[in-house]
Structures are given as C-alpha cells and as structure tokens.
Design goal:
Keywords: Kinase, Transferase, Two-component regulatory system
CATH topology of the largest domain: Heat Shock Protein 90
Low-confidence stretches: none
CATH architecture of the largest domain: 2-Layer Sandwich
CATH superfamily of the largest domain: Histidine kinase-like ATPase, C-terminal domain
Helix content: 40-55%
Oligomer: single chain
CATH class of the largest domain: Alpha Beta
GO molecular function, one term: kinase activity
Strand content: 15-25%
Number of helices: 5
Protein name: ATPase/histidine kinase/DNA gyrase B/HSP90 domain protein
Organism: Streptococcus urinalis 2285-97
Length: 173
C-alpha cells in the first residue's frame, strides 16, 4: 500500500498536481505512523515466547505493515535451548523493526539452516537495501550476537538485501 501511494504521489508531482500529491504524502505519513505504533505495541507485548511463537508474532507484525513474511526450515529451531531461543528472538525482533522502519520491502523471508555445528539464519527482503556497506549497519544486532559468539554478514546490500547470521551451536548459553 505504501509503495502504491508513494508512486502515486510521485506521479502527481510530475503532473504538477501539488495539492493531490500533498494529500497522498499526508496519507503515507499516517499509514507509516500507524504501522510503527502497531509495531511498538506488538513489541512491547512480547514477553518470553519460544521462537516458534515469536515467528508467528513477527509474521503478524510484518503483515500489519504490509510486508509478506515467509519462514523456511523452522523445524530446525524446535529443540534449541530456551536461552538461545530468547537471544535469537531479540535478534529477529530487531530485524523486523528495521524492516518496517527502513526497508520499504513488500516481502521478506527467513531461512534456518545448519552447517556443521552452526545455525545459519538467512534473511532476505526486496526493499531498498543499503546505499553503502561500511560495517556500521545493524549495530544492535551485532551487539546481541557477541555473547553467543555469533556473526552477521551482509551478503547482498540490495536486490535483494540478504543478511546471514551464523551462531555456533557448541557455545554454552
């Protein structure tokens, strides 16, 4: 919805219909504020959910913001220790908040995989991505990975944006 309204506002501006474009931009601001209020409310209501419950909550949050969300291989996280699930939950919440705030994505997906003793979390969206990758992106997620010796790599900065999180499973949490 936001993409359509943005394109409409741009077209109206190009046609010189300033007042109509202003109305569309005002509507966009309201939609954005409402979406962020919904995101904040949902995030505030989140307590100690297991990771599967959290994924359902994130799906609802993202869909409220107009973003289709898909999770692949979530059966791999069923038996993770609850302490690790809690840490992954916080990382995924942060990613979801960034998706809504910054990406302008219409779709995103999270894929869980195992590689030897590591849990891989691959995130992908079709949003605007990063203009430059200078190492300071997603700082709070990197901070959350430190205690569990995890790593985050931006695989692709756009078209699609792809981020991989690697968490060693032998780390005691």
């Amino acid at each position: 919805m936001m993409t359509v309204k943005t394109e409409l506002a741009q077209t109206l501006l190009e046609m010189g219909q300033i007042e109509s474009a202003k109305k569309e931009i005002t509507d966009l601001q309201m939609i954005s504020k409402d979406s962020m209020a919904n995101v904040r409310q949902i995030v505030q209501s989140l307590k100690d959910h297991n990771l599967n419950e959290e994924l359902l909550i994130l799906k609802n949050m993202l869909e409220l913001a107009g973003i289709r969300f898909n999770v692949i291989n979530d059966e791999l996280i069923q038996h993770l220790p609850s302490s690790l699930q809690a840490k992954i939950t916080m990382i995924l919440r942060e990613l979801a908040t960034n998706i809504v705030k910054h990406s302008h994505a219409e779709t995103c997906k999270i894929i869980f995989n195992k590689k030897k003793t590591d849990l891989l979390i691959d995130y992908e969206d079709d949003g605007v991505g990063f203009e430059e990758v200078n190492g300071h992106e997603l700082h709070s997620i990197k901070e959350r990975l430190i205690p569990i010796q995890g790593q985050m790599t931006i695989i692709s900065k756009s078209n699609p944006t792809n981020i991989q999180i690697r968490i060693p499973m032998e780390v005691e949490i």
